[in-house]
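hey m, so remember when u said the tokens were messed up on ur end? i reran from scratch. heres the input so u can diff it against urs
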Amino acid sequence: MWQAQVFCAAADTLPKSVLSLIPTMRSRHFSVVAFVLTSLLAWAAPAAAEWSELVKEDEATYYFDKEAVMPVHVSRYAWVLTDLPKADKTPTGESYKSMMLRVRMYCKNDTVVRLSVSYFDKQMGKGKEVASDDVHEWRPREYPIRPNTYLAALKKEVCGGSKAASG
């Protein structure tokens, strides 16, 4: 009880101009803290991908996320979603209906590297992730991009044509 009286007595001796600043400082501090927390929550919240159709075939439909394409020099990082009409099996035997593939596409030399893959039990990358695989090699293997495939369609979309990313 004695401490409360000392605190109040100290506040009573402050000039009125300083006392009027305390609520203002608190509201500014609160505003800054609220802004930082809101920004962090917005950044941390998983954003739903907007999948754009690449190729539709009888055995699968291929999509890519335009917003997630990341250019790095003459290559592009991209996410590809493969949606299957009926379930298939992962290399380890789990049943899946869609998979998300992270690739690095080399626009200049028409090759692609698979970086990771995740398999899902429902279509459009939804449901439970039943399996995943990340490439942990020091130098991952590059594969040629064959004409008239979903990877050729992806290259056209993310590289902007045959010569757009060659410099």
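this time it looks ok to me. The first helix runs from residue 2 to 12. if urs says something different then somethings off w ur setup not the seq
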